[in-house]
Amino acid sequence: xxxxxxxRDLLLLEHSNGLISDDELLFFMGEYQSKNPEFTYxxxxxxxxxxxxxxxxxxxxxxxxxxxxxxxxxxGLPDFFKCTQRTVAGKIEGLCLVLRRMAYPxxxxxxxxxxxxxxxxxxMIANCVLEEIYDLHAHRTTSKDI
Length: 146
Hints:
Blueprint: H1 4-16, H2 22-31, H3 54-61, H4 67-75, E1 80-82, E2 88-90, H5 91-103, H6 112-115, H7 119-142
Antiparallel strand pairs: 1-2
Helix pairs in contact: 1-2, 5-7
């Protein structure tokens, strides 16, 4: 199935070749317009904790840079998270995404420059990591043994 952008590009091509009129172009462009905003994510590099400065890391995630891998190991997170639609994220990237969401609630679109991924992938990765943490540690919140 073609994306809205691909259909619009094809409509413009057909219009420039004289296959559809101006009125038809305007009508179809209105019909094939996504209701979701288009975020540019491919101009940003993928997340790499090693590229971040210590103060930036502390501000974004509320953890020291060298403590994040220790936290990931302590939580028992897997090396990779594979989402239902086959998006793959590393352990550190997934944990940092969740930490960022918890440290400062913001829209997923605001995280694109940090993680270099589209909004749906960020959402799925965050949910996948949270589910894993819950599955591994929910018994600690429900157990009466303290």
